[in-house]
Design brief:
Blueprint: H1 10-15, H2 27-154, H3 171-175, H4 186-193
Length: 194
């Protein structure tokens, strides 16, 4: 017998024949032992086949689980990369929005500054025009007053005209005291006094 390739099956045990000799073993016991050994060997072979089949199924499950694990790891890595890329993109977009908002705010401030400068210049121009108008009006009123004064000094006052008052238009006006009579409008006096 070769120890390397010795394989024993239940059928080998059942078919094994032994030589008969004197003083040998009891054939009934040997036959009983052979039967029990063959049954046990058959049970072990069946169990081995069942375990081999189970091992094969478990290895297939392990392989499937490893493939799922790899797929889940790949999906996780992809999700992490996507999250990182999304975060970077969101940060870039936020920076761009901030820069655009800053630029827009700067443009609006510049525009408002220019508008304020324009309005201030316009206000100063209006103030100069107002002062020039008042000066021209003052000059005109003073010249007219001087001419009226010169005219009043040169001619006698008709109808009881007194400087700075208007002659009564009718008799009822003449009856009123001098303080109550009409005189030059107040706005002309205020211009002349300035």
């Amino acid at each position: 017998m070769n120890d390397d390739v010795f394989r024993l099956t239940p059928l080998d045990v059942r078919k094994q024949e032994f030589r008969k000799s004197m003083r040998g073993y009891d054939p009934a016991e040997v036959e009983d032992f052979r039967k029990r050994a063959a049954d046990e060997l058959e049970r072990v072979v069946r169990e081995r086949l069942a375990l081999t089949e189970r091992l094969k199924r478990l290895e297939e499950q392990v392989t499937a689980f490893k493939e799922r694990e790899k797929a889940m790891n790949d999906a996780l890595v992809a999700a992490q990369q996507l999250r990182a890329e999304t975060k970077e993109q969101a940060e870039r977009e936020a920076q761009m929005i901030i820069r655009e908002a800053d630029a827009d705010a700067e443009r609006r401030v510049d525009r408002a500054r220019r508008e304020v400068e324009r309005l201030e210049a316009s206000g100063q121009n209006l103030a100069r025009q107002h002062h020039a108008y008042l000066a021209a009006l003052r000059t005109l009123v003073e010249r007219q007053k001087a001419e009226l004064d010169a005219l009043a000094d040169a001619q006698p006052a008709p109808f009881g005209k007194v400087a700075g008052t208007i002659a009564p238009a009718d008799a009822a006006e003449a009856e009123r005291p001098r303080d109550a009579r009409k005189s030059s409008p107040k706005w002309i006096k205020s211009i002349v006094e300035e």
